[in-house]
């Protein structure tokens, strides 16, 4: 499964080890949800200002957030190669990940892995708006994080 990584921020160091780790996390999230392995996902690392603008533009929420998912499988099909499945983009605020890791008392690695899994599951249609949906999504998140000893 191709995981494309684009780092658009400079506040938090993103090295090859982190990129490879998060690619593995995204792949495991797809597998846990029973999704095909050849799907493409894009991870985009941004700062609070950038994600704030996206949140305002696409959700009408005038504040930064930690993660946004932009699914490509929603709406009308796009003409092209039927074999290629592009799931979409997971946009993560690296500043929010750092703050939340400190606030929750766990590692940055655990927090960024959680946000990656959370975003990928949203691309696959998981949601947490209803209590029953939230339980299913949280169980999948914990299942994936356990594979990396990050529960």
List keywords for this structure.
151 residues; ribosome biogenesis; alpha/beta; 5 helices; Collagenase (Catalytic Domain)
Overall description:
The protein is α/β, with parallel strands linked by helices and 151 residues long. The protein has one domain: Collagenase (Catalytic Domain), CATH 3.40.390.30. Helices cover 48% and strands 17% of the residues. It contains five helices and four strands. A four-stranded mixed beta sheet has the order 1-2-4-3. Helix 1 links the parallel strand 1 and strand 2 (40-46). Helix 1 packs across helix 5 (131-147) and helix 3 (94-104) crosses helix 4. Its EC number is 3.1.-.-.
In the sheet with the most strands, the strands line up as 1-2-4-3
Strands, count: 4
CATH class term = Alpha Beta
Which CATH architecture is right?
3-Layer(aba) Sandwich
Kindly identify the CATH topology.
Collagenase (Catalytic Domain)
Quaternary state reads single chain
Secondary-structure element string: EHEHEEHHH
Can you count the helices? Answer: 5
Envelope shape: globular
* CATH homolog superfamily: Metalloproteases ("zincins"), catalytic domain
Briefly note the structural class of the backbone: alpha/beta
Largest sheet: 4 strands, mixed
Q: Name the beta content range.
A: 15-25%
